[in-house]
Write a structure and sequence with these properties.
By secondary structure, the chain is of the alpha/beta class. About 30% of the residues lie in helices and about 15% in strands. The strands form 2 sheets. It has a 6-stranded mixed sheet, sandwiched between helices. It has a two-stranded antiparallel ribbon with strand order 6-7. The longest helix is centred in the C-terminal third of the chain and has 17 residues.
C-alpha cells in the first residue's frame, strides 16, 4: 500500500499545504486538452488517475476519477463527478473495465511507479494516455538559471518516458506538446514568456517542485529573478520569448496502445 499523508496524498509532495490554491492557477489549457481528446479517440469510459481538481477530464464522456488527496478532491468543480479516494498502485476496478485511461502531471507522484502503470494497463482495454515531462529536457528551461534546485528536483522526480512505455507495453507514441504563450495551466514552463508571474507565491506553490527547496533558497531564487527583470537582464537574454506563440519544452504526451486493442481492431 502506498504511504498516505494526512490528507491522503500518496506522493512526495504534501498537497494539503501546496494544493490549497491549485485549481486557481492550474486551469486546463485548451490546446493541451485537444491533444488529449484526440489521443482518447472514440473511448467512452475513461479512468483518470491522480485526477486532482479535474483538469483535462472530458465532459462528454463517462469519466471515473481517482484522487488520493482530500484537498484536491475538494477543489473539483461541481460539474465533474466526485473522485474516488484511491491510489494508482491499487485500483478498485476489474480487469479491462475502461475503454481508456489517462493521467496528467501525476506519474511522478506515484510511490511505486511500475505497480501503478501495471494497474493502469490492467483495468484498461484501450489506450493509456500520460501527460508528463521528459526529465532529460527539464533543465534546459531558462528558469534553471534562477532556480536550479527547483528544476533539479523536477528532473529527478519525472520518470524517463522510455521507462513508462516499457511497463505499459504494446506500442507507444510520444508526442511533443507545444505550450501556448498564454497557457492557462500554470506549471513552470507555462510562464516561459511571462516571467513576472513566477514572482507570485501562489503561482510557485501550484508547481510542486518549489516545495522541495527551503523557503530561504526559494526567496533567493525569486530575488535573483526580480533583479534581472527590473534591470532588463532577463529581457536581454530571453525577451524574444515574450512574443513567441508557443514553446517546445519538456512537456510530452505518451499514448500507449495495448496489444489487445490492436488485435481487436485488426
Amino acid at each position: 500500500m502506498a504511504e498516505r499523508k494526512a490528507d491522503g496524498s500518496a506522493g512526495d509532495a504534501d498537497y494539503s499545504t501546496i494544493g490549497r490554491d491549485y485549481a486557481s492557477y492550474r486551469q486546463p489549457e485548451a490546446a493541451i486538452a485537444g491533444l488529449i481528446v484526440r489521443a482518447l479517440g472514440p473511448a467512452q469510459s475513461i479512468l483518470n488517475i491522480g485526477a486532482g481538481a479535474g483538469s483535462y477530464e472530458p465532459t462528454d464522456r463517462d469519466v471515473t476519477a481517482v484522487e488520493p488527496s482530500a484537498s484536491m478532491r475538494a477543489q473539483r468543480p461541481a460539474h465533474l463527478a466526485r473522485a474516488i479516494d484511491a491510489v494508482a498502485e491499487s485500483l478498485p476496478f476489474p480487469d479491462h473495465h475502461f475503454d481508456a485511461a489517462m493521467t496528467t502531471f501525476s506519474v511522478h507522484q506515484w510511490t511505486r511507479l511500475e505497480d501503478g502503470l501495471r494497474e493502469m494497463r490492467r483495468v484498461t482495454r484501450g489506450p493509456a494516455i500520460i501527460l508528463s515531462c521528459d526529465p532529460n529536457l527539464v533543465q534546459r528551461f531558462w528558469l534553471n538559471d534562477y532556480a536550479p534546485g527547483v528544476l533539479a528536483a523536477e528532473a529527478r522526480r519525472y520518470p524517463a518516458i522510455e521507462r513508462v512505455s516499457a511497463v505499459l507495453g504494446g506500442t507507444a507514441e510520444v508526442l511533443p506538446v507545444p505550450i501556448p504563450l498564454m497557457c492557462r495551466d500554470g506549471f513552470n514552463e507555462a510562464y516561459y514568456g511571462r516571467p513576472e508571474l513566477l514572482l507570485e507565491p501562489a503561482a510557485r506553490l501550484a508547481c510542486s517542485a518549489w516545495s522541495f527547496v527551503s523557503e530561504e533558497t526559494a526567496a533567493a531564487y525569486v530575488e535573483h529573478l526580480r533583479r534581472d527583470l527590473e534591470s532588463g537582464a532577463w529581457d536581454r537574454k530571453h525577451g524574444h520569448l515574450r512574443t513567441a506563440p508557443t514553446y517546445d519544452g519538456s512537456l510530452r504526451l505518451l499514448v500507449a496502445r495495448s496489444q489487445q486493442a490492436r488485435t481487436s481492431t485488426a
